[in-house]
Design brief:
Blueprint lengths: L9 E2 L14 E7 L2 E3 L11 E7 L8 E2 L14 E7 L2 E3 L12 E7 L8 H10 L1
Length: 129
């Protein structure tokens, strides 16, 4: 018998690569081709799809803060003063992420009214008179 020659399968050209599967950071992209005609006297073992990793610019990371602390004690023992509270930065903004808002807040406080003079000062004043 004459020798048989196999005719390979015919494939379309590869398609363009797809868009990356993500809009930022690491993802995947694919491309395909189609089987135009099967192989004669054999199998078509060619791959019809390929995938590869793709990398876009890093995703923005917004600033993250802890919860506010409790308000501090008033900074004076009498009269007008202020109290503060703070929060810490857990994650600094990166790659165009939202900036950190304030980390310290201050508010006014008033304890009791301050007395003009103590008992000793009043006695000295009376004695000096």
């Amino acid at each position: 018998m004459p020798e048989c020659h196999t005719i390979p399968c015919l494939l379309s050209p590869w398609s363009e690569w797809s868009d990356c599967s993500v809009t930022c950071g690491k993802g995947m992209r694919t491309r395909q081709r189609m089987l135009k005609s099967a192989a004669e006297l054999g199998d078509c073992n060619e791959e019809l799809e390929q995938a590869e990793k793709c990398m876009l610019p890093e995703c923005p990371i917004d600033c993250e803060l802890t919860e506010w602390s409790q308000w501090s004690e008033c900074n004076t023992s009498c009269g007008k003063g202020h109290m503060i509270r703070t929060r810490m930065i857990k994650i600094e903004p990166q790659f165009g992420g939202a900036a950190c808002p304030e980390t310290v807040q201050r508010t006014k406080c008033r304890v009791r009214k301050c007395l003009r003079g103590t008992g000793m000062e009043k006695r000295r004043w009376k004695e000096a008179r």
